[in-house]
Amino acid sequence: MKELKDQLLTTENLNVFIVDWGAGARNLYGQSVQNIRVVGRVIARFMQFLNTQTGANFARMHLIGHSLGAHIAGYAGAFQPGIGRITGLDAAGPNFSGNDPACRLDPTDAIFVDAIHTDAEVLGLGIVQPVGHMDFYPNGGKEQPGCPATVGDVILDPMEVSCSHSRVLQLFTDSLNSSQCQFISYPCRSWDDFVDGKCNDCGLMGCPRMGYWADLSLASGSFYLRTGQGSPFCKV
Hints:
This protein is an alpha/beta fold. The chain has a single domain (2-225), classed as Rossmann fold. It is built from seven helices and eight strands; from the N terminus they run αααβαβββααββαββ. The strands form two sheets. It has a six-stranded mixed sheet with strand order 1-2-3-4-8-6, with helices on both faces. The protein has a two-stranded antiparallel sheet with strand order 5-7. Helix 4 (68-79) links the parallel strand 1 and strand 2 (85-89). The protein starts with a helix and ends in an 11-residue tail after the last strand. Residues 152-158 have low confidence and may be disordered. Keywords: Secreted.
């Protein structure tokens, strides 16, 4: 997160607040899931404090959350309506897939909700289903280039089990430098259709970009693209 914070401050004139909820995330996964609602409530109250004490506009606030943090951002937006944007970075899948939208990140949590899926598969750590106005699936949303592709690979190097799940942080950080990296994506029904070349037309409005510069005015739905295996990841 430090790299993302540094790049945000380099790119834009803004204030960045990082939420450390480590004490609530060190429990067993099930308990951590139960804790996120409380964390979301605390963040909502902090945003209300900023609004009343400094006049900070809710519509100009942008929450960015990775894994369980994406759903925390969703709860914060539900507790405080009118947040400008929430970005879900590979929102956690276990205990959330197929759930009522009120219990996970969903498009009603902010004026604009965008999500990037990088580990969305059966045994992955990310959620498969769309959770935002714009959902981006780089490389089909799973098995990111350079990450282990098989169970055997993970057994040989257990530390790599979260490689695809963590890749989303690098992709979003890269996206901030628009002069170096533009993640052009294409609307498509599925990754297979994208691979088959059936989705290469974005219409008169142009193709949307994945990441920090995503623009809801261009389109909504699911979008696909390829990335490389090293930074800058937009270079395939």
